[in-house]
Design brief:
Blueprint: E1 2-5, E2 8-19, E3 27-34, E4 41-49, E5 52-53, E6 60-61, E7 63-68, E8 74-78, E9 80-82, E10 85-89, E11 99-109, E12 112-124, H1 127-137
Parallel strand pairs: 2-4, 3-12
Antiparallel strand pairs: 1-2, 4-5, 4-10, 6-11, 7-8, 7-11, 9-10, 11-12
């Protein structure tokens, strides 16, 4: 789900993942983020286990690995956990070309780690980039 929250101009992606041993495919999110989405592309993630909410608190860590398919670039960031929700702001500077990004979430607590889930989405250079870059090549 993508939406605006109050007066903030944010592209908020809300995603809930079920943690279990069942084989599951990567969730394909129907979203596209652009290189001019500056500080506005936000992933809010929550988790359930056996249908019950996993209450995230300070004892959890959630690293997220973003893997860009075209060039193989990898970016690992730690989600901020607040009020039971893990949040990652996707840095628009990571977008250097049209691409599909695979994101992998790893839920850590104490000395245990779960490969929690994965999702994918599209990224694209904003039209402004093409307009300004072509001005320098003409």
């Amino acid at each position: 789900m993508v939406g605006f929250l109050g007066d903030n101009m944010e592209k908020i992606v809300k995603q809930e993942f079920e943690i279990n041993a069942q084989e599951k495919s990567r969730t394909r999110l129907d979203i596209k983020l652009f290189s001019q989405d500056v500080n506005t592309a936000i992933f809010n993630m929550s988790f359930t286990q056996d249908g019950e909410p996993v209450v995230l608190d300070d004892s959890y860590k959630l690293p997220v690995l973003f893997l860009f398919r075209k060039n193989g670039r990898k970016v690992m960031v730690d989600a901020v956990i607040k009020n039971g929700i893990a949040t990652v702001v996707f840095d628009n500077r990571w977008i250097t070309e049209w691409d599909i990004v695979d994101a992998y979430t790893y839920l850590n607590k104490d000395n245990q780690t779960i490969d929690a889930n994965a999702f994918s989405f599209k990224v694209e250079l904003s039209a402004e980039f093409f307009r300004f870059s072509s001005a320098f090549t003409s």
